Amino acid sequence: MQPTDDFDPVRVAKSLLRRRREGALATLMRDGGAPYCSLVNLASAPDGAPVLLISRLAVHTRNLLADPRVSLMLDERAEGDPLEGARIMLMGEAVAAGSDELPTLRMRYLAAHPGAEAYIDFTDFSLYRIITSGAHLVAGFGRIVDLAASDYLTDLTDADDLLAAEPSAVAHMNADHLIALNLYATRLLAAAAADWRCTGLDPEGLDLQADTRVLRLDFPERVTTAAQLRDMLKRMADIARSAP
């Protein structure tokens, strides 16, 4: 099957990576037996790569410590026939977070899963990033395509200033600009009013969450600095206020 003309596989793949908060993780059994599949919670790294918080007591963790190769399935959870919703299968390796990226991944994971604060520092739990080598996207009849990691991961080149400002920017938005966040959700993304909070920022957009509902606000242009981010968020708020 070939994708239809109105299908943007890159956009769909990026949306799933940013919005899904759980997925099916497949690892290889250490005894050489059948693959092992388990449900895991996840967040996204600044480039969109999936981030897991897993315990060494779990079978999947013991499996990937022996062989880091994994697959991760994310799906749209559409109403009705689940096969009519978009889903993506990511292939790659699960790698323990390095000391340099650990604060960022910890912040992003807790923003997505606040309840993990109760156990994230337990000695048997660790954060892992999935280093993907490619993906298989299925988004309905005639909408099936294989993607390279460069297609769906966000380019972080020259974005050091923005990434350094992310923690303070997220905290500032959640402390002082909840009205703007709600406008983004309701006016620009057609969501119901709720306690929408910002959980992350990157060069391509902003992530919003209210309880288990997650939205992705794409920026019309790439931003790489804190100054550009301020201008973009004000611009998007102005657009939202003028929307019907």
TrEMBL record:
Domain of life: Bacteria
CREG-like beta-barrel domain residues: 10-153
SUPFAM superfamilies: FMN-binding split barrel (SSF50475)
Residue stretches making up the DUF2470 domain: 168-236
Pfam families (UniProt xref): CREG_beta-barrel, DUF2470
Designated name of the protein: HugZ family protein
Organism, scientific name: Rhodopseudomonas telluris
